[in-house]
User: Which sequence fits this backbone?
């Protein structure tokens, strides 16, 4: 992609109304556009990051046996009345009426819908366990949408729902999902801590949140420095560890995911049953596992940034390489063009800073702001040594690499991730 053609009008100044680091940088880098409070468009750079986050999540969900589907956003009142949540959700549902005066809700979650689907298709224990997931838009009627993509009113979430014939089966899969989440976040450069959490209006006696410890986080978690116990402040009201008695430490964190053991909360009310080996019917035992995609994008920035801008991990970067030629010399232009074409041919994602009206400093600042993991510079100075200057954004380290060795160098660098 030539920088002159990329839809991204970056800004040198922080937006006045953006408070979190990720919100400021996503707006400055033109990754997102705010349409209304808590409602954002993902622009081309933001969409590229989103797609990579989605691919990683899908990869790990498929690896544990998840089957992907897609569920409606519009949900009839009747199905919410079955579960008893039509008037109990917090935040309250976005409710709309159709032209027949029938009430519907914009789905903030899909327990009712998935239970309705499964109850007509699962009849025997032989069909269990079953894991179904979707990656789809959600709507939350938040009182205060703040922090950019960290708290929005419309967003995309991965929902995984599992169905079991025993608590033991649920626990086994629950642990498998938690491990898959660790893999997901590790691949995106994030380290999570699992904490005991309150289940809220989703329900179930057991739930855990995947937390990224961060000074920018709006959640507070309690950690035991001795035994590793961890809980959300909402869940644990004592300052002493319930497992070893050590004083708990308070840390700020960002919620990256939430998993629940629902038990029979929905299946019992909605008559979703299975028949066991003795021919007896029982309510399906359920689990659900949520992960917000745009929220994850923002969390990555909260962890990976400096005073120059974003520092995208290679796995989710919108483009992998920024290519900059310095000077009007014909050889520089030809060499830069040749390297650009070769990198594209090899399958690398490159932004070529081709704008002649921009200074070198402006191009460097733009590449740093947008957080491209690698920057390649061609100039008279580098060509005198038949080389290309390579800068790693994460470490700020630079080195000269011979032109004929550039592709093999990049292949080797990328293989580390």
Assistant:
């Amino acid at each position: 992609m030539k920088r002159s053609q990329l839809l991204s009008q970056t800004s040198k100044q922080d937006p006045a109304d953006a408070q979190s680091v990720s919100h400021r940088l996503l707006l400055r880098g033109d990754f997102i556009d705010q349409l209304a409070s808590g409602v954002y468009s993902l622009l081309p750079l933001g969409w590229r990051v989103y797609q990579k986050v989605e691919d990683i999540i899908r990869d790990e969900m498929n690896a544990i046996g998840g089957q992907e589907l897609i569920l409606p956003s519009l949900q009839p009142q009747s199905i919410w009345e079955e579960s008893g949540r039509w008037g109990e959700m917090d935040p309250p549902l976005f409710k709309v009426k159709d032209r027949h005066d029938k009430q519907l809700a914009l789905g903030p979650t899909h327990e009712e819908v998935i239970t309705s689907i499964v109850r007509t298709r699962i009849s025997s224990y032989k069909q269990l366990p079953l894991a179904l997931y979707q990656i789809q838009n959600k709507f939350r009627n938040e009182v205060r949408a703040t922090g950019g993509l960290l708290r929005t009113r419309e967003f995309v979430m991965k929902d995984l729902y599992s169905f079991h014939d025993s608590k033991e089966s649920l626990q086994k899969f629950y642990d498998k999902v938690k491990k898959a989440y660790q893999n997901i976040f590790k691949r995106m450069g994030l380290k999570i801590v699992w904490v005991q959490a309150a289940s809220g209006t989703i329900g179930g006696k057991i739930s855990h949140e995947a937390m990224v410890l961060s000074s920018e986080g709006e959640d507070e978690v309690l950690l035991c420095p001795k035994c590793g116990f961890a809980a959300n402040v909402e869940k644990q009201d004592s300052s002493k560890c319930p497992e070893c008695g050590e004083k708990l430490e308070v840390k700020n964190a960002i919620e990256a995911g939430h998993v629940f053991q629902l038990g029979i909360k929905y299946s019992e009310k909605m008559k979703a049953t299975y028949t066991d080996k003795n021919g007896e019917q029982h309510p399906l035992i359920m689990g659900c596992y949520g992960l917000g995609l745009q929220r994850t994008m923002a969390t990555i920035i909260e962890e990976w940034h400096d005073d120059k801008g974003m520092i995208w991990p290679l796995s989710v970067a919108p483009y992998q390489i920024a290519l900059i030629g310095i000077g009007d010399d014909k050889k520089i232009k030809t060499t830069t063009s040749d390297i650009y074409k070769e990198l594209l041919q090899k399958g690398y994602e490159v932004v070529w800073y081709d704008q002649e009206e921009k200074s070198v400093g402006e191009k460097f600042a733009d590449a740093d702001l947008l957080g491209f993991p690698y920057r390649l510079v061609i100039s008279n100075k580098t060509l005198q040594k038949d080389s290309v200057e390579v800068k790693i954004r994460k470490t700020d380290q630079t080195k000269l690499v011979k032109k004929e060795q550039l592709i093999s160098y990049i292949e080797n660098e990328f293989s580390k991730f």
